[in-house]
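Input sequence (300 aa), recorded before submission:
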Amino acid sequence: MAYRLPPLNPLRAFEATARHLSVTRAAEELHVTHSAVSHQIRTLEEALNVRLFKRGAGRMVLSAEGVALLPAVSGAFERIALAASGLSQPEAGGRIAIHCVAGLLSLWLLPAISSFCKLYPQASLRMIPGNDVLCLRNPEIDVSICYGDGHWPEYQVELLSPVRLFPVCHPSLLRGRSLRTPKDVFNHTLLHADNGREWENWLLANGLEMTTGCRQHFLADARLALEAASFGNGVALGDTVTSRRSLASGLMIAPFASEVSAAYSFYVVRRRDSGGSAIVEAFVAWLFSQIRDSARFSGA
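Predicted structure, token format:
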């Protein structure tokens, strides 16, 4: 059966741009120029007779048509990649216990884990939320993905991703009190996932200081702070790894272009004497391939 499909290169340009919400980052991934990606997106929009992107508050966001198209295009590319990988993929199975910081687990790892399961259908996963490398003292834990400074000398530590922070909120907040400039965050409730240091760093980078009259809520972790923001309860600090999906879907928006480096990063941590079973090694390799594919943590 012959299918009438849009041209492949414009679809690749659209999918990469939609993942990154950035033409610049898509161009870097595809190893082409910024103008080439823009041209391919225009070509696709003309072929489909719709607008796939719109710009709001200094950031690129998907249109309703773009949101509808992205899952189909991403899924098609994923199935092609999985099929190609499966041609030469060695069999690996068994159990693997993964300890992972809660926000990364729920907002990034769980949405992506199906591709690992398709590659390794014999694998059985146990996923435990947490952010303490000492969990590795439990021999049943195979790998830990932690948020921290990476200084854990008794363990094998690999940098998974640096993190950059920026304010995010539900779109409804823009229809209420002003949120046009960085100082306007003081018109809203600031949602913290720590003791306040990350917000203080972002404010300082924008020439501001925390005011005593600012309303603030402190939550146990980034996942809860972002969930509170998604319900319109205030402004949280999203990051360049875990916030990508909510921004691409339009559930959340980033009202400012300003980003600041987080004090900590995400790390893959293992025991030095773990030996590394085939399935654990496969999972760690998959983690790094996923973070490269999402790539939103990279520089502007």
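Checked by second reader. The chain is about 40% helix and 20% strand.
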